[in-house]
Write a structure and sequence with these properties.
Number of strands: 6
Mean pLDDT: 87
Strand content: 5-15%
Low-confidence stretches: none
Structural class: alpha+beta
Number of domains: 2
Order of helices and strands: HHHHEEHHHHEHHEEHEH
Helix content: 55-70%
Shape: elongated
Length: 386
Amino acid sequence: MIELDGWVVLNFFTGLLLVLLWIFQKSASGMKTGRAYSALLFTTFLLLLAESIGHIGEAYPDRFLILAKIGYFLIFLLDPVDILIALNYVDSWMDQKDHMGRTVFRIEFIAFAAINMVMILLDQFTGLGLIYTFDGQVYTRGSLFMVRAVFMLIFIILLVVYVVLFKNHIPEQYRDSLILLPALSLAGAVVQIFFANLNTTYAGIAIGCLVLLFYVQSRDVNVDYLTGLLNRRGIDLKLDESIKNSVASGIAFPAIMMDVDHFKEINDKYGHQMGDKALQETAQALMEVFGSKAFIGRFGGDEFCVIPADLTNSEDVELKIDKIREEISRIRSELCVDVDMDISCGYLFFDPFRPVSRKDFQEKIDLRMYDEKQKHHILDRRKMQV
């Protein structure tokens, strides 16, 4: 009977769990929260893989010592980055209140990750071996190894503190589940102190991600299942939030409504699968053009709504719309559809000194979009007559 080391079994099932979670999450990866979740899964899997090849290299130094050196280098270099990405994921669920207080925490985490990288790079390229080294073919801890390990533990504890301290900024239904992510990571780190050959920290993160998938990611009622963007409810909430912030700050903001021209023809001529693909490609183009700070949603059917970030005048908005039109033309070519695919757009800046309700604001933008759509239909009829 073949006996497997404990780390092999643990790493195999932890890696399998991370891959499955990434597959299940992929459909919602267009959202800010989805992207942060996917980044956490990817980084944890990368570190788990590095740890696995490091173990292999250490077990067979005559043939695979280079694997040990590569694996442990990646682990020591990127371990704090995983904590930073976990912080970023938790922060993606928080509102914009008390942003300065949370920024202090974020700066500390970024500083720790950056200082750690510099230390590891200098330690290895100068051959000092203060954190770790290879004495011939044997892996050896350096004199500062435990100092770094203590700091790692402190920052995992600080992640727990961060979630607890700012929990009121997280939607109530998700608080307990989000607290579990750093709590399980901390539990894994503590267990690893007693079982050095088992990297239970990554297993703790993976279990935390599993809890998040069931109780947070899959239950987010504000995500559109097809595109991974905000759905109608989600974009309404973001528009309410933007209006409230605009009135409080006195700063205007734009909102754009977009409709895919001749989308029904794509469905009728090429089938709903091609239509879904066209919507998904359009959603991806909107995310790339407007960036991660924008609020982007599928308003319904083939309509999209965008609340851009950092656009202060009409010229900037129209430049973005022109880029979207270029992307739609590219999508049409890539999908090879013989349909005059385009977009009709309407946009308006919210005036904080003459505020209106979200519903009235949306209706005004919708009318502008409808006017442009009518103009497009008139042009289409003229083309047919020619």
